[in-house]
Amino acid sequence: MKAAAIMPKKIGSLHFVEVPVPRISPEEVLVRIIRVGLDGTDKEIGMGYYGTAPKGCDYLIVGHESFGRVEKMGDGTSGCGLKVGDYVVATVRRPDKCINCAAGESDMCLTGNYTERGIKGAHGYMTEYYKEVPANLVKIPSSIAEPAVMLEPMSIAEKAVTQPFEIQSRMVWAPKTAVVLGTGTVGLFAAMLLRLRGLDVVSVDRTESNPIKEDIFKSMGIRHINSSKVAIGDIPKSIGKNVDIVVELTGSPAVVYDAMNLSGPNGLVSLVSVTGGSYVANVDMAKLNYNLVLGNRVVVGVVNSNIKYFRKGVADMVSIEKAHPGLLKGMITRRVPFEEFDNYGILEDREQIKVVIEFEKILKKG
Ligand SMILES: [Zn+2]
What's the CATH code of the domain at 248? Predict the structure, then answer.
């Protein structure tokens, strides 16, 4: 079978490899890929910034945002809740032996010795078939078969939105207003999830929004602010309210400082994105310290997700789909046939929300 792979740390090395269809053990499941999503991490893997091959292999099969169908079940998998023909999404990170990983929270890994399928030390899903144990698979209802390829980014948004509520269980807390900085896939999902929780949500980016984002904002009652017109620090004044939750998804160091000062008393800022490199700035640490201390404010870093957030993501995708049919699917703005996937150029187009690789032709061939 065909798979798409890169040579780690080598720019522009995306190529097809011919590999055998995986043979499953009695404990495993064989999954046939239907489509795979691409994101910023894929772009950086294509640029040679990230990506580690599995031990003993000189290439890495890419792709971590998967959607497929169970093709074959191992004899020892009965009672796992899956059957042949079920739609599934696989999680990405695989644990090491630290206390957090052992507790099922590989997203909280203490050591950094985890692997990630399609990213770090384990092959990904940009291939006709993959094998996996049922514990790493999430069953997908057919009502969200189209948007479920975005479940991995949805799981990140779930963690970014859920953790503030867990952290703030330290006090009586009734957040009313949230600001989400960034309108990529995770940013749009975070805004939607905060709306589902009943908050007044302001979604911020540097542009006038495009028709697809406009549709999401209108359907779900999300306000949009163009930060090239309203400075981030002026948002509370502009909306006439304190901000209780800030979710920062731009990763831009210049935005991060403003984000940390944006929340009101008892507010929380969730930092979810990074840009590499170094950025040195003159900032008013006294002001930041004053705001954090006197306002009991929290700034928290949030990375990755675990299967619990994938499952929450399924439930919330089903609710959104029910209330707004087709809204999620509309976020898939470009579909590239697998046979034509030989570079990451499409990810340079900032107008795209979610680009997916379709395995349709191969599936038709049987
Ligand atoms: Zn660990």
Answer: 3.40.50.720
Strand order in the sheet with 298-301: 223-226, 200-205, 177-181, 245-248, 268-271, 298-301
- In this prediction the pTM is 0.96
- Owning domain of residue 139: 2-146+331-365
How far, in Å, from the CA of 97 to the mean position of ligand 1?
6
Last residue of one domain, picked from the residues 251, 280, 301: 301
CA of 263 to the centre of ligand 1 (A): 32
When divided into structural domains, the chain yields a total of 2
Same domain, yes or no, for 79 and 100? yes
| Ligand 1 center from residue 307 Cα (angstroms) | 15
356 and 250 co-located in one domain: no
Between the CA of 55 and the centroid of ligand 1 the distance, in Å, is 18
Given a cut of 80, is residue 158 above it in pLDDT?
A: yes
CATH number at residue 28: 3.90.180.10
- 9-21: per-residue pLDDT in tens? 999 999 999 999 9
- Tell me how far the alpha carbon of residue 56 lies from the centroid of ligand 1, in angstroms: 22
Torsion sign (Cα): 244, 183, 203, 288:
positive
Tell me: the pLDDT tens digits for 170-215? 999 999 999 999 999 999 999 999 999 999 999 999 988 789 999 9
Distance of alpha carbon 1 from alpha carbon 101, whole angstroms: 33
Q: For residue range 208-226, what is the model confidence (pLDDT) as tens digits?
A: 878 999 999 999 999 999 9
